[in-house]
Predict the structure.
Amino acid sequence: MLIRYDELLALTQEIFAAAGCGPEEAERVAHHLVEANLTGHDSHGVIRIPSYVDWLRSGKVLANKTASVVLESEAIAVVDGEFGMGQSVGEQAVRLGVEKSGRHGVSVIALRNSGHLGRIGEWALMAARAGRISLHWVNTSGAGILVAPFGGINRRVSANPIAAGVPVEEAEPLILDISACTIAEGKIRVALNKGVPVPDGCLIDGRGRPTNDPRTFYADPGAILPIAGHKGYGLGIIAEMLAGALTGGSCSNPENAGRVANGMLSIYLDPAAFGSNAEFSAEARRFIAWVKSSETVTPDGEILMPGDVERRNRARHLRDGIDLDETTWGQITDTAANLGVAR
């Protein structure tokens, strides 16, 4: 079913206001969730509403928290999210990184104990719109242990998203948003709700056998595989070190299984601090044009840059509406009804 952007945004905001978030936080959580759907990342969109509300009710995530700076120097800050809503404390951490890098040319922000941060590419885009290059490493402790190590069967590592953004004057920013594993858990949930299989090479069952059945991931339980074999596994381990250990939060740890807690290590660079921003952007535009000039495999093919697909999805969904399956929509409206919010 197709739902208009403004209607879905309003409903989502009402749900989180009813769940205890203040007006500003409810608006930010709704914005980030619906933006994920707009860009085509349904795994990090409104499908998360029932889980977020359950976490608020059980105290696994806390409404209206202000992230606290526990250690700070001119270019570095360690920030504790105090298990607040990730869309709220995450935004606070990004603003701090942008501000510090504007004064010193570079900044590093270590965020720990955050609620689910949502689509990490949104933080790279936020920094790019402020004129900053950024790189973000993320991990999830406890309830987010989903991925088997290379050559293993059992869940030992989190999904470990990695995002980067590059602003380019007079052009769209480059936004890379990937994970060190083959599929986001949210995409498995989307497949489950739609009643469709997941792609080949993404999942194994509890005995290490390949499976396409999303039910096996939750019931067996199975595990997600790293991307590109040992290479993705190694990338995931480094993400755990940076986002888990270095932030002072936690690497994937079964002792923390009671809640989803994200850590994020973010690096911000002001291109102007490295010379001429205009020259940087000119070289970026030249390189992009040269890459896109490649002959394509098929006559109607096209060379895309990181972020192009999301921009096109956003324009299409704003025009045509956001497509939600009946199961997901039913879960959202049930959650709304339980909070006294009219459909």
The radius of gyration is 20 Å. The mean pLDDT is 96.
